[in-house]
Amino acid sequence: MKKLFAEFFGTYWLVFGGCGSAIFAAGIPNLGIGFAGVALAFGLTVLTMAYAVGHISGGHFNPAVSFGLWAGGRFPAKDLIPYIIAQCIGAIAAAGTLYTIALGKSGYAINNTAAGAFATNGYGAFSPDGYSLTAAFIAEFVLTLFFLLIILGATDKCANTNFCGIAIGLALTLIHLISIPITNTSVNPARSLSQAVFTGGEPLSQVWLFWVAPILGAIAAGFIYKTLLQKTDEEAAHQ
């Protein structure tokens, strides 16, 4: 249960910090942090919680990460569903907190016909810069694939894992710098679901892509790392 609580709180913080920065801080005239600030906020949430609870649960905070670690032989299949449930509950709880805070501003309402409303992900008319379904799928697949390669490499038994949280947090920052204009950046199915649940409409109907593409990219990365990059015990012994 401690592992599941760690995943709950880690995913809660990721959504609250990352999506919260997009909702509250990105667009304030003259003072807003912009999309670069949002990218940094997402990276910082993962970095901080990796050190806070990563030693308890492994610090996934993302269903795609759990699938990728499973494919890479680092995570048991029996724990996939419990982890994903904990991650989704944490993400939705964070989105609920963000929505409650947002209602504290007079006249606030989510416009679910606008791209990126309530920090949702989307493609086509719901992409921040109008990218197609195909473009969104490729971006989410490739970026999640490389995110998992970084995670698998940074946490490898042959790596200096003392700094793995920094590498992973910076990787997520870079991913957001690349893809906020394309999809508003997911690479995390729980994060996408949580915002869409409160937004409804077309953003909710598009959530499927932000489950399928990241999970497929993560699984591909797990098999790639395990078969092409990971050192065998014999190679590690002679390092």
Quick overview:
This protein has 10 helices and no strands.
Record the SSE blueprint:
Elements: H1 2-25, H2 34-57, H3 63-71, H4 80-102, H5 133-154, H6 164-183, H7 189-199, H8 201-205, H9 209-229, H10 233-237
Helix pairs in contact: 1-2, 1-4, 1-7, 2-6, 3-4, 3-5, 3-9, 4-7, 5-6, 5-9, 7-9
Intertermini distance: 37 Å
Oligomerization state: single chain
Tell me the name of the CATH homologous superfamily: Glycerol uptake facilitator protein
Low-pLDDT ranges: none
**Structural domains: how many:** 1
Which structural category do the helix and sheet elements fall into? mainly alpha
Tell me the name of the CATH class.
Mainly Alpha
CATH topology, by name, is Glycerol uptake facilitator protein
CATH architecture: Up-down Bundle
How confident is the prediction overall: mean pLDDT? Answer: 94
